[in-house]
Amino acid sequence: xxxxxIKDITLDEVQQIVQPSSAWKIVNSLIEKELVSVYENLQxxxxxxxxxxxxxxxxxxxxxxxxxxxxxxxKAPKQLNILLQFLHLHQKETDVLQTELLKLSLATSSQLQAxxxxxxxxxxxxxxxxxxxxxxxxxxxxxxxxxxxxAYTNILSGFAEKKPILLKGITGSGKxxxxxxxxxxxxxxxxxxxxxxxxIALTAQIIRKLRxxxxxRIGIYHSRFxxxxxxxxxxxxxxxxxxxxxxxxxxLFLPFIDLGLIIVDEEHDTSYKQMDPAPRYQARDxxxxxxxxxxANIILxxxxxxxESYYNAQQGKYKLVELNQRYGTATLPEITIIDSKKTQLEKxxxxxxxxxxxxxxxxxxxxxxQVILFQNRRGYSPFSMCSTCGWVPHCKYCDVSLTYHKLTDxxxxxxxxxxxxxxxxxxxxxxxHITAKSFGTEKIEDDIKAIFPHARVxxxxxDAMRIKNKYSEIIRQFEKKEIDILVGTQMVxxxxxxxxxxxxxxxxxxxxxSYPDFRVNERGxxxxxxVAGRAGRKADKGHVFIQMxxxxxxxxxxxxxxxxxxxYAEEMITRKEFNxxxxxxxxxxxxxxxxxATVSAAAQMLAQEINQLPNTIIFGPAEPGIARIxxxxxxxxxxxxxxxxELNKALKKIIKExxxxxxxxxxxxxxxxxxDVDP
Length: 679
Fold this sequence. Notes:
Number of helices: 21
Structural class: alpha/beta
CATH topology of the largest domain: Rossmann fold
Helix content: 25-40%
Number of strands: 28
């Protein structure tokens, strides 16, 4: 009888035998026929970090023996110097790091090894944390003023009612002080606190404030950490080695043992929505659910709350607490709108800067104050154009124009990440007049350096943040007044607190107000009010200059008056009239395929299948504004439904069933379908 040993094979090996795209389909078919079985083997990839520490041999820890050692090493000055430097470091630190000892003594590893061989030193590998912070000794008190104390009392009454709290506090009102007081209460009760922020850049500043108030039992968690660093944070939280966790949206999924408080700072921010890949969750809403599950208190904070949250507060679902004055003697900044059409006609513009803004920057620099310049576009030029025939370079994988980046001297696609050489000769007409159109942060940085050559200018966007922890370094430099002018995207406006900024310039507000989205006015107001809030946060009066063409925008009057409630009331009339959130729920279904005709046909079929759903309005299918990304053609179907929970559960079940039918239909099996609830 012939016996054969059947070897297990991996999915990677299957993909080498058949077409990679069909590997899973073939494997699933074999599983259904019970010809094969599949198992997963999980492997632990985490490796603790170990470093060398140097210890004095126990023989020489007695004073008499140590004196003899000095005599022995008297004729070996380099080795004696290593010993002296070791004793110097040992007085400051209990354990002496080998790299630090070698650096201080200017010695080599072989010289240190000679002392080890003589039995004078012992070198041990010791496991350490990858995340190291300076120790904090002096803890600063967190004292509330009268308005904050009143708000604190109202928050506690909301907690007693088991309601989420919406803290609407104008920029610079001291919401952070309230957060710290609530964290203090939470820790006193022996529980953990989670502090969510929309951007990694914010953590650098907030973490220093937290550590100056609460010491060293703080963990940080965000996407810039390596996998090993994340594992260490995970273990610390699981074993209650930290009391406070500060992080971006993914910090919601950490293994909290006894969570007592969740703070969602800048709760309106779009960064809280996970867009791609799945799961497409809204971290603010997920945090409310988590708080309910763990019986924890939750507070949502913002100067410009999301309409959904403010509506819930108006309806009594959340408790609204307000702070309507800036902390101390500070006042809200004055906002000046500069009509770009007028400045161009009157020739009072120098490149992308109006004369009025240039004069204001000069005045701030003369007063030794700092300036923030905001433009929500990266790169040097968002698109280029042939002046002869109008040809524009586009991404070959996406239906978007390419952005020129001067730093790399390449054309970048901000959707798929592809790069190509900068085009100097037009492929359409052969012309040599390719000109940059519009402007991004790189061009602003270049131009402002030319106008103010003696000013210290720094760019603050994702392109400048490629180096790990670069954002922390720039924020620290700006706080220490080592930077005069900070040029950045929306990273600079999200809750950062800079004491010496008295001027903010918005170079092109029109780009914020021209998206085909029902939330465009809400998000434009929020972003402009937030960027304005960076100015005049202390005693000095702040000024904001906003350059734009469309000066008749409905948000401008409310923005200049810092009138969120008036803007909200006006915008909600339109929302109600056209059945938009928060009066309804929305579901977006996105279909993708490499063949345009296939995805269009699939979208038509799915739309017909779900067209008869009760209490639901269906729009589409239609191409989105960008119809192709990463060589995948897109179609979208938008559903509006009422806010009945049971109805929505049934609706989601039906939609999933219809998508399952589509995925088994001939010609549509390779169509990708994504569902985005509350887009």
